[in-house]
Amino acid sequence: MPHDPALPLRPETLAITSGYDPASAWGAAKPPVYLTSTFVYESAEQAKAIHEAYFRGTGPMAGQPAYIYARLSHPNLAMLETRLAAIDGAERAAVFASGMAAHSAIAIQHLRPGDSVLHSRPIYGGTEGLYNQLMPRFGATALPILDGCDGDHIRAQAERALAHGPLALIVIETPANPTAAITDIALVVAIADEVGARTGRRPLVVCDNTFLAPFAQRPIALGVDLNMTSLTKYCGGHSDLLSGGISGRAGLIEPLLQLRTVLGTHCDPFTCWLVLRSLESVAVRSERAMANALTVATFLRDHPKVAGVTYLGFLAEGTPQRAVVDRQCSGFGSTFSLHLHGGEAQAFALLDHLHLVKQAVSLGGSETLACHSATTTHYNVPAADRAAGGITDGTIRLSVGIEHPDDLIADFAQALEHV
Ligand SMILES: Cc1ncc(COP(=O)(O)O)c(C=O)c1O
Fold it and tell me: Would 250 disulfide with which of 25, 91, 192, 323, CB 3.0-4.6 Å?
């Protein structure tokens, strides 16, 4: 019996139920992978109608599911986009070949020569490069937000950005990679509204929600225009795929879908199938990883060789950051940084003596990963910008997985003896 639509389902349930109807595939409990690059038309007349619907949104096939060529869309992509939109509480979603393909589509769609963009800092190194190295070649100027909880600072940076040209985008990543720095999402949305009311052009607010996965932070409900997620991380969850999603209002997602067709950055059928499947367990995986992270972060914070741990749960009561986390997040995440006394030599000594914990970039997988931020993920970020973002030469980023926490503690304890 179909679900009674009068009883709304929670996102954790939608992560399992939405996007796929077994009746569409012989009752198969789980979806098939549609490994095809092209789709056969019933007739030339139907082909014309399908193309009219795709390009103009009119004609007898308008609004009906129909596929043309897998770069435009395919059934596994449609299933995943439906599920991602349902989980994020958005009207529509677009899924790309990677998180950076998703970020790039937003930048290309919304920036024009002369425009300015504000972005939180620190921010993932690839996004930093997109806005500070690539987009300036097309005439757009980027400025950083260094304290995402300070309204005066954000307003001042918006003024500086407006001095360069219309403010088209405010891109925030919260918690941020790698230090888990916090940006107040509702505050940024309010400032975007103020800029819009004053200048006649409201900047779009984009939130990269990769770090807390879809359940511990709900950017769409907080008013952002586009919610971006690297599905490679917690949503994929097993360090075996690359994918990126954007959710938001249909009117903002549809142009991104058209752009994706031109760029050729759609997500392939098998990867979509893997992400659809992984979304079913992201809630429970995240819960376990977050519980482990609290245990590991507590051990590291209390160790004499560790100068500090930027774990969200340790933010001091009474600080603006703590107030924002308490208001905006329902979990503290499982990716954070530890800062060792000393610099690169001490960090490398720790990393090279870890046995269970693997040295690798990326995060959100079932296994615990560690990397030295300054020489890996943020290698290409100028040293002064890294320092401004709180990344020292003794900073190591940890993505805590779902192993037994005692084994993780034992590994860190023995490795720290070599520092
Ligand atoms: C916060 C954040 N956003 C975006 C990306 C880019 O995602 P992808 O590697 O899927 O392109 C990453 C990658 O590490 C990230 O950490």
Answer: 91
